[in-house]
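Something for you to look into today, if you have time. What I am after is a single protein written out in full by you. I want to see for myself how the chain folds. Could you add the entry underneath, on a fresh line?
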Amino acid sequence: MKRNNLFLLLLLFLTFFQMSSATQTPSEDILEMKVKGVAMDPYGNTPVVILEDLAGQQAFPIWIGLPEAQAIARALEDTSTPRPMTHTLFQNILNNLEVKVTRILINDLQSNTFYASIILRQGAKTFTIDARPSDALALALGAKAPIYVAKKVLGSVRTVNPSVSALPQHSSKQLGMHLQSLNPELARFFHLANPEGVLISYVEGGSQAEQRGIRRGDIITDVDGQPIKNLQDLLEIFQRKKPGHEFILLVTRDQHPLRIHLPSAATE
């Protein structure tokens, strides 16, 4: 019965959501990305999927549900289950109907919620289906379809992984921090008086940042005595720092100031 309902639901999508005008060749307004991995946020005990651009210069996390995280992890590892799970079932239905997932697009960010679209093709017809990013990513990985993110979303999030891109080549490759410029909405969420500073949106397990006590949700407001208003301020300091020296970070955690010493280069 459940499979029949899913089948009918998919047919309704294909019938009523045809939008050929929205499925042209990817433009300069979007950036192709890949799923770097899935991890468990140790502080919220919530799964996180990390997206990264193909050049490894930009990355940001999206918090997702456990079933979607499991589906994404299975797709990344190319493993199967004895019986098809929900995302595999949808992929099988699409295959049987000769419908191809051509790409997915994470196209908007509103109130800290990401929005996505799945682009389908059946013969000469194309369709755009609204979806949660987690479901769209699971289907894209299963179909080996490209993943795109609107640059306006990246511009809003402005999250990078300095261990990959923002720091010089000699700097630590294990800092493991994902950073995001604050905005008024995030400042209100963290009960801050103003939107100046940089939010640590994710800390990778086993990284230098985790070992030094940095946590997701920390707000960097000062580095080495220099005020940090936005992400660009922080990256400029990172880039000027010589290897072998420490950063002294002033962070706000739960509305209380805290000093953290962070190495500027990896140690063997």
User: Anything to note?
Assistant: The first strand starts at residue 30 and ends at 41. Residues 16-24, 160-173 have pLDDT under 50 and may be disordered. The chain has two domains: 2-154, 158-263.
